[in-house]
Amino acid sequence: MHILLVEDNPATARSVQLILAADGHNVSLTASGEEAVELAEIYEYDAILMDLDLEDITGAEALRELRLKKIGIPVIMLTGSVDVDSKVSALAAGADDYVTKPFHKAELSARINAVVRRSRGHVDSVIRTGPIALNLNTRSAEVNGQPIHLTPSEYKMLELLSLRKNTVLTKEACLNHLYNGLQEPEIKIIDVFICKLRKKIAAAGGENLIETVWGGGYMLRDKPGAQDRLAA
Fold first, then answer.
1. Is DNA-binding among the key words of this record (predicted)?
2. Which class in CATH covers the domain with range 126-220?
3. Residue 133: helix, strand or coil by DSSP?
């Protein structure tokens, strides 16, 4: 997943960034609440982790600005306060969840998966698309009940397609999701990952549900006739 971390404490930011990277997430980092709002207008992050106490504006103020701009990216507030009023304030501002520091990395991972699933309309950790079952918790995939081996990049590609199934994803959006805008290879690498995914799914007896969309995009189609939407 592509996650925006908004944290102005360098030590905490580095610690959380390492936790997220170890879980296979791509992480963008900013210490500014105002910059976080600007970034969220440009990129379609899967989730935002926002510290409640920032130096320029508070996390709650940044969150209210996000919601006023109709940006629905799920937001998890990070707070060192155990004060109930602070948590209630964060939720009232539009937060999807909050985590109290210090936190266990397993809890943070579980909460991220939960808010992203809910935001995409999925109830449990397994997203099923035809014969494909993607488990967000174990970061694994099966086709017709048979496990398939995926490289980290192939998994991220299938995860993105699954979370946003029936939605057209441009190659640029896929590239940004996989590489976070840093040291990006040529865009044709997306075609390579899609080709490998199709082959592995087919080898396990699965039908080809990954469609090539005219204009330079791909879509994992859940069922015929689903409404197509172009992802920004």
1. yes
2. mainly alpha
3. strand
d(CA 173, CA 185): 13
- Neighbour-count burial of 3, counting CB atoms closer than 10 A to its CB (0-12 exposed, 13-18 middle, 19+ buried): buried
The CA–CA distances, whole Å, from 228 to 84, 169, 175, 221 equal 42, 10, 20, 9
Q: Where do the DSSP E strands lie in the chain?
A: 2-6, 26-30, 47-51, 75-79, 97-100, 126-129, 132-135, 140-143, 146-148, 169-170, 210-213, 217-220
Predicted local distance difference test score (pLDDT) of residue 228: 41
Q: What gap in Å lies between CA 13 and CA 178, rounded to an integer? A: 21
| Residue range 98-153, pLDDT digits in tens | 888 878 888 888 889 888 888 877 767 888 999 999 998 888 999 999 999 999 88
- CATH among 3.30.428.70, 3.40.50.720, 3.40.50.2300, 3.60.21.10 for 2-120: 3.40.50.2300
Position 184 scores a pLDDT of 66
pLDDT attached to residue 182: 59
What was the pLDDT predicted at 223? 65
Say if residues 52 and 12 touch (Cβ distance below 8 Å).
no
